[in-house]
Amino acid sequence: MRVIHGAILDIAVDIRKGSPFYGISFGIELSAENKKQLFIPAGFAHGFSVLSEKAEVTYKCDDFYNKESEGGICYNDPALNIDWEIPLDKIIVSDKDKQLPLLSDCKNNFVFDGE
Question: Sorting pLDDT into bands at 50, 70 and 90, what band is 68?
Answer without folding.
Answer: confident
